[in-house]
Amino acid sequence: MVASRLAKRLLHYDLQTYGQYYQLLNSGQHAHEFQLMVNILTTNETYFFREPKHFSFLQDRVIKTWRGDNFRLWSAASSTGEESYSIGMLLAEGLGLRKWEVFGSDVNTEVLETARKGVYLMDRLDNMEQRYLDKYCLKGVRSQEGYFRVDEKIRSRINFEQINLKMTLPRSLGQFDVIFLRNVLIYFDTETKQEIVNRVVAALKPGGYFFISHSETLHSIKTELSMVMSSIYQKPCK
Description:
Layout: H1 2-13, H2 18-27, H3 33-41, H4 52-63, E1 70-75, H5 82-95, E2 99-106, H6 109-117, E3 119-121, H7 130-136, E4 137-139, E5 147-150, H8 152-155, E6 158-162, E7 176-180, H9 190-201, E8 204-211, E9 226-229, E10 232-234
Parallel strand pairs: 1-2, 1-7, 2-6, 7-8
Antiparallel strand pairs: 3-5, 4-5, 8-10, 9-10
């Protein structure tokens, strides 16, 4: 997979080996090539309301019972934004005009640009209830037929920025009531998983909820979190 995805970059620079490409990356002579490589190599599979049980829990067990001043949720691997906008629709339904915000981050700058635009193909909607489509999505016409755009009342409450989860998080990130870190940990070894979980959970408020994918586990990861149900954890209240 890595070889096939990077093959075009070797052709672009007329290189014969991946070792030569590695040397080019480390030479410092092509400042934007490293980010381009990251964009090529990252996997960005996502769609609206993926793993529906998580959204049911968020709606019924978290949003309905929330009594704070400003609800903050971090989609820590937001890819092209479908997860963040799915969450935004739930928050708009459950909290209405109360203060809430979603922060979406990814290491891939290309998918973040797609997320900021909020424009998607209609075939991305298999798991979306019709009422959400009618209320929060604008269907394209003429040249935009077959596409839809997430409504401004959702997009205005969602911010997308680049964050590398393997590096120190920015101080401006703040604390969150809920963090989604889904389909990320499966790509790392145990040591790196531990580092990432420690870093991300530090941004979770006491009593906050932490979501991973159904295909992932925190087995062998030391954490203060307690399991609420499979793939959903809670940080203890102090």
